[in-house]
Amino acid sequence: MIVCGISALSHDAAFSIVDSQSREILFASHSERFSRKKNDPELDPESVRIIKSYAPTLISWYERPFKKKTRQLFAGQLAEALSLGDLPARYLQKIGLGDIPLVYQDHHRSHAAAGYFTSPFDEACVVVIDAIGEWDTLSIWRADQLELTKVYSSQYPSSLGLLYSAFTERVGLKPNEEEFILMGMAAHGEPVHAQTIAGDFLEERDGVPHVKQNCHLGLGNYLSAADAFDLAASIQEVLAGCVRSVLEKARLLVPSDNLVYMGGVALNCAANAPAYRLFKNAWIMPNPGDAGSSLGAAALATNQKLKWENPYLGYEIAGSYPVEPVLAELQRSGICGVASGRAEFGPRALGNRSLLADPRGTRTKSQVNQIKKREPFRPLAPAILVEHAEQYFELPANASELPYMQLTVRCKDPENFPAIVHADGTARVQTVSWDDNPGFHELLTAFHETTGCPMLLNTSLNIKGQPLVNTRADAEEFTQNYGVTCW
Ligand SMILES: [Fe+2]
Fold it and tell me: What is the pTM of this model?
């Protein structure tokens, strides 16, 4: 059976194709990569064409529309609650997928499944923290022998994700999209308002932080005189404390060595240290938000562990990894784009749709941020040969590999790598092994042999507010428009 999991009609539509017999993930992508509309909520015609080309016999939708409508009704979103035009069955009919049988999954169960069914664990404690979907906004699960049992949940309007999104909006950023910019701002401020925020917004229930105010409609002029960077630092500290408390509670409820952590909040890599400290093994699937739930919905329909090999599951640019020309361009100009192989499934470029640079240059960070039209304070990440990671970064004692940029860690030698160290001395490191990505590993090895430096700055090959480069044509356009050579 070929199953297509779909997450759409909210933000950042995505689809995942799974073969239930071989347990292979055949294809997974965000729709925006094809439509070229950032966070496109709909499946574009090319996504639909790809889905049809696999001839799926079942579509598994990542949430339950009527359950969501009851929450929307409660939230006063009357237009959404009463609209029938956004029902998945009607929508799929409209885009030409209406003839395929359709099943629905719970929103948080899809998150949990996307993590558990791709994880290396038979049994695990699964934690999901997100902003808003149906009713659940935080859930804790026991996963064992393919069974997911929910043991705790809290519901809208209490939502840690919504709280963080509300502060995203409060500092002038786009909620539900630019939370990662708020996270980057945090290192430039002081958490002077953290106690006030915790007092105003949080209370403890059953040992779990509960948001006592509905943040769905924003914060107005809350702390109107506060500096935006201090606000960022403050809410980041509050969120990090909440994540720690939730994970502590989860460990008590589901005693296990293994943690699976999912939901949009799991993308906040600066708050993820307790996942590695409290559990022996932690798995954060590289696409833990709603787009990744398309894979979770597909997994639930097959009810099998999937063969997770790597996150390179999207559109393929054929050909071998361009090691020699990229190396030559890095030596010539210090900056080079790569668009090769299959695109990453998830928000982060991990070597196949990446803008790479020498991390040692003092001007590199501002150069790259200028090319990408990003704010100058934005951090940039390193990708390092896994065998050298320990030497340059303070990795968690139980995680010598961090292949998907799930965690910020302290850099041991910040002076020599100014382009990849954030204001607080940390970096969102990607360790690269041959098994993760042979081509990228070969490039890093060649760069190391030539320069003595085992890492490269690795940021997504896109301009701020635009989707990542997907096809060869996108890469050529990138070179033409922004003057960066892409191989
Ligand atoms: Fe979600």
Answer: 0.97
